[in-house]
Amino acid sequence: VHGRFHHVRVARRTRRSFYHVKDTMASFTMASMGVSTTNLSASRSALAGSRVRMAAPAAARAPVSLTARASDDERLRLHNLSPLKGSRQKKTRKGRGYGAGQGGTCGFGMRGQKARSGRGTRPGFEGGQTPMYRRFPKLKGIAGGMGAGKDKFVVVNVDDIAAALASSKLDAGSDVTIESLKSAGVIKATGHYRNLPLKVLGNGDLGAGVTVHAAAYSESAKAKIEAAGGKAELVARRPKWTREAAKAAAEAKA
Length: 254
Prior knowledge:
With about 250 residues, the protein is mainly alpha-helical. Helix content is about 30%, strand content about 5%.
């Protein structure tokens, strides 16, 4: 029996010695802080018959929010700059083994045209079906890619000139030019049309004879202007630029 319960008695003596040393250290600490041991023993006796509750774990306590505010005199410098959280991610390491995520075939599959070296298909290729740039309807003029569809003239009809004369926007005895038509508001040549020459078309009738200066006329417009007693004068157009003409002009200037 002595040998059987010997370790129990040794454990009890060790525990009593531990608590004795603990109380001694606590008394010494409180004495150095100015707290008497009698108050400690009184409070211990007062709590002898009361129930003691354990404190809640740290995870169950209310979260504490800490906000770090920089001082007003602190400014952004090179040493305190940092990207936002989640804005910078590590680049996927392709072709570095299956543990990297894209290690084997690098996301291109095992076989096929797009898995080979070099470019897979040309831009706009859709596998043989009618591609998008051929399915959509084509627009007229420069919007559709055809420069031949752009207007070459600012056009005005004969009835527009007659209406301007009737409303006194144009004087009956003055010459009709592209500048007078712009100032009278008969035509609005802006944007692409601001540098284009004038062409007269033959819609309508002209009652008064006027002299018109334009770069081109339709046959019916010229006939109606002359039948009303007016004149259809041709204005020299801006010469078309050609490589040969530019070379000749440069040689003549030299």
